[in-house]
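Table S4 entry, D-alanine aminotransferase.
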Amino acid sequence: MKVLVNNQLIERVEAKIDIEDRGYQFGDGVYEVVRAYNGQFFTYEEHIDRLYASANKIDLVIPFEKAELRELLEGLLKANNIGTGNVYLQVTRGIQSPRNHVVPELPLEGVLTASASEVPRDTTLFEQGRKAILEEDVRWLRCDIKSLNLLGNTMAKNKAHQAGAFEAILHRGEEVTEGSATNAYIIKDGTLMTHAADNLILSGITRQVILQVARDIGVPVAETGFTLTDLATADEVFISSTTIEVTPIIEIDGKQVRDGKRGPITKKIHDAFTAEVLKQCGELAFS
Ligand code: PDD
């Protein structure tokens, strides 16, 4: 397996990370996960724009121009022979010795690392759906930044896993925010409802595509958020991300959502999403 360390494509076992990298010590960095279908990136620009926007919000300078970064990431995809899979990339603020919370005045050299893996589409996710649990959202108040700090997310995800569920749907009091690694939606009386893209959620790229295709196919969209009560009485529930597309939620905290099957509007939205993937990346292979 070949990985990227800055502008070098090297064998994974050869990659070395400095123990005083601020990403390693403080989680001081940003990341993206980009999906490829048929060896073509999907919504590449949107992901990279979000990477630079996240970096900008924490005054981190990405050490590459966008064109150069694209060349590097496409090279990574090719070197690993990825057809349908995921590219993970992160940029940390760089190495600072000795460790100091204060960022030095002269900018550090940012460190880019990236890896790629083949991950076929899993139709059982989309067709059968998955179970979720509810979990209080104890994360910080800048969830719009795709930062490396994911303890609040991983703790919630692991709680779900231990409960035999796929995802933890997070809420701040009555207000549902998002999943631990996904955005969350309900369908209520034909309207698609989701949290506004503010500081309490990550503005998912999949979410952006979903809202667009939903409007295109005539499903009304309300970015007004929804409550735990709305969730409990929803007609359909689903989650989304780069890696899981549109995945129905069929049970929450042991309670079945409606008939426990993917809802008709969720299916329509996923079909429209798939058409968008097809448009950008060509014919799709299923697992
Ligand atoms: N997670 N919200 C959170 C907290 C996320 O971590 C993610 C993505 C999303 C969905 O964003 P997008 O549609 O752009 O993937 C929402 C990625 C996949 C991850 O951390 O692996």
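The chain is about 30% helix and 30% strand.
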